[in-house]
Amino acid sequence: LRHSCVPFCPPFLLLPRRLLLVSDVTLAHSAVLTSHLLPAPGLSAEQLAKVQGVSKLFVAQHEAYKGFLPEELTPLVLEAQKQFSFTHICAGASAFGKSLLPRVAAKLDVAPISDVIDIKSPDTFVRAIYAVTPPALVGKSEWLQQSLTKSDRPELTSAKVVVSGEVLITSLSCAVGASRAAVDAGFVPNDMQVGQTGKIVAPELYIAVGISGAIQHLAGMKDSKTIVAINKDPEAPIFQVSDYGLVADLFKVVPEMTELLKKK
Amino acid sequence: MNPFCEIAVEEAVRLKEKKIVSEIIAVSCGPQQCQETIRTALAMGADRGIHVDVSAKDAETLGPFQVSKVLAALAKKENVNLVLLGKQAIDDDCNQTGQMTAALLDWPQATFASEVKVEGEKLIVIREVDGGLETISVKLPAVVTADLRLNEPRYATLPNIMKAKKKKVDQVKPSDLGVDITSRVHILSVEDPPQRQAGVKVETVEDLVSKLKESGRI
């Protein structure tokens, strides 16, 4: 991409995905727009500036940006666009990016492209279901609070190993995912849901424990490098996408696996 | 009806039952079949419908951007102060229409809502974000998009389905609203994702763990 602009959100959220984004779009010059840097365990402006491919970094600081509200950030991105005429404006497909970019696009009178998984050329993009060519580009609110799920485990969308199910393999350093059924039943918070309407994950190892593999769930994890399925139903659809399948009762398998992994 | 839209309709009906909303207008853009979707909303409790008539051929290229222009024009024309939508369609998963409608109207947006409370001229909305939940307050008029856990939509009862048949559904064309629905995004191809081959079944946990070790995954 000739000249792109990447608006960044709170530095402590979804870091790897956003970094990946910068390295993906660096065909020439990238400018990164970051607003209100928090003294958080995230990326500082200095660190951001060192990311390969970033040639310009804009830092905008204002009290109004503290909640990263799209209503406040849209004018900022529009002003940057007016001054520098970027060819593309990109953001990660996170809750932040999905809130902000359509608003920016509508203001620029262009249609945005969501969930891009590959860039074929500056005007041809691959989405999870479509390949499309777009024309050119792909204070009324108040932020009150954010209650983030607290966990010592790695973040779901960037973890190397993800275990989904209602059980924990405690001896494995992994992020924990869940099916929609488990979320709807109130067993786990919504941000753990893997699937079409939840998180899309692609870890090195995905272990589905007692998950049948509804098509919506598969959509969220089928790009994992290695998939392991543990289910007592030999007909469960999850076995059709798994590299290793074990037909067994999870309540027997999980303690056994936990012990074995401890030994290694 | 798209499940997220169903949740949005349900939320509107609940707001009306709490006497916060005075009238609910159900809107759908597309060919004749849209009227069935509108009737479903009317059976759930919407008061009247507007069918934005788009031919089946044009509907194929109708994207979120064009729809948001239609919705913004209708919101102005009907003088509404709350636009409630599903967060995304389940065919294209775009997740854009609500945000763009808010932008075109210059209204605040509260996307991916899992709880909506009305406090005077303000909405307190709990949003589902990547790391958990976020609470924001938006001034009305505003655009809200519904996430999965906002509510559990009701089933339309037979008497309500019968009543819905008598409710009014107006028909308009995008051009009546001054909206050009030409799309500037072209779908070049639609391909199946690469098929994933089913691998092997292992017999024991030891087997599984040693295979994973061999492949260097653990």
What would you note in describing this structure?
The complex is a heterodimer of chains A (264) and B (218). Chain A starts with a strand and ends with a helix. Chain A is built from 7 helices and 13 strands. In chain A, α3 crosses α4. Chain A has 264 residues and is α/β, with parallel strands linked by helices. Chain A is elongated and about 60 Å long. In chain A, β6 and β7 form a beta hairpin. Chain A has 2 domains: 130 residues, HUPs (Rossmann fold, 3-Layer(aba) Sandwich), CATH 3.40.50.620; 108 residues, TPP-binding domain (Rossmann fold, 3-Layer(aba) Sandwich), CATH 3.40.50.1220. The longest helix of chain A has 15 residues. In chain A, the strands form 3 sheets. A 5-stranded parallel sheet of chain A has the order 10-9-11-12-13, covered by helices on one side. Helices cover 33% and strands 28% of the residues of chain B. In chain B, β5 and β6 form a beta hairpin. In chain B, the strands form 2 sheets. A 5-stranded mixed sheet of chain B has the order 3-7-4-5-6, sandwiched between helices. In chain B, strands 1-2-8 form a 3-stranded parallel sheet, with helices on both faces. The termini of chain B are far apart. Chain B is α/β, with parallel strands linked by helices and 218 residues long. Chain B has 7 helices and 10 strands. Chain B is globular. The model of chain B has no long low-confidence stretch (mean pLDDT 93). Chain B has one domain: 3-Layer(aba) Sandwich (Rossmann fold). The interface between A and B is large, with 81 and 73 residues.
